[in-house]
Fold this sequence. Notes:
This protein has 159 residues and is an all-alpha fold. The protein folds into 2 domains: 11-124; 128-159, no CATH class.
Amino acid sequence: MVVHPGMPPGPAAHSAKTLILIGLILQVVETAVILSFGFLFIFFSVLALFVLPIAFIMIIWLVCVYLFSYRRTSDGNYEGAQAPTLVFGILSLMTLSIVSGILYLIAYSELGTALNQAYRPQEFWGAPPSNPGMRYCSHCGRMNAPYHSFCEACGARLS
Ligand SMILES: [Zn+2]
């Protein structure tokens, strides 16, 4: 679920976004180092056959972190960003990208906080209009006069 676009992101969302960005930049640097080693090895070592595919996987990884973690967070889709950020954090730790891994895990917990902050004002947006005596059609949204049993607009039974 995407948070209402009119709502300003809270401090937790900001810090989640910043943490993911720093983690991502660190891994861009790691990828650049691996990639340049790969190209260096091309000329004199069979190691290039191992290093270049790893660099290629790392580039795909960076795109995934950007799309599923960073973009979703900056679009206000904290719920959608949560699970990928957790997975990226755990995978980073497992592949010895320790600093980025820790940053992603902190970002994951900040996303949870951002989600709580974002949904509190939902009480004001989501509630159907309360008009004394009028009967609200949950099917089409029309307000019907109190004596109606069925909706004037769509014919649905009014509960
Ligand atoms: Zn209706």
